[in-house]
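Glycerol-3-phosphate acyltransferase, Tunturiibacter psychrotolerans. Tokens?
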Amino acid sequence: MNPWLLSIPLAYLLGSIPFGYLLVKIFRNEDIRATGSGNIGATNVARSGAKGLGIATLLLDAGKSFLAVKIAQHLAPGDWDLAVVVAVAAILGHVFPIWLGFRGGKGVASALGVMLALSPAAAACTFGVFLVVVLLTRYVSLASIIGSATFPLFGLYFIPHRSPIVIDGLLFIPLLVIIKHRENIRRLIAGTESRFGKKKAEA
Ligand code: NKO
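Tokens:
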């Protein structure tokens, strides 16, 4: 079977598994969308009081999209265009999952997964930027936004194949992630965004 026909729908399906939602539903019988920021991502799962589930959400959300890209790389070795299109498909699955009425997460952990599969060096640099911003500000959202903005620079530096599809994909992914943070951006400007590790009253 044509690797494109197989790996793109598979990437969307893998990406659309809402691990944060599922873990909180299964282990706490709660709807993560009803607490905190309402997001299904690792940060909000941890914020809801389930630190372990938050870490599991991060690993599984990153792992699913990592796997999607790895499958494409296995089916069509050296095909950077396919790898990047599959990365986009996996993130679209996470952000617009058919199972949750197309209302999914913000794509940060899933972007980490695809970056690790595309270029571990670019992923490490982007993660470094993310970490510095989190440690300085304790705003995970701000770190995700600034990390996203730097990702295309690292990606284009480390990825040897700079075709239009690769360049467009490396720009599209962070743009989508940043757009998904528009509520966070409003709260950051208003000074009401919650800081990681602090209770709402002291945030
Ligand atoms: O609940 O709206 P919220 O405060 O939860 O959540 C905001 C947050 C949403 O994202 C997540 C996933 C958190 C994962 C944390 C570790 C991942 C480090 C990834 C670094 C790379 C980020 C750049 C993306 C590149 C396009 O933001």
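The chain is about 70% helix and 0% strand.
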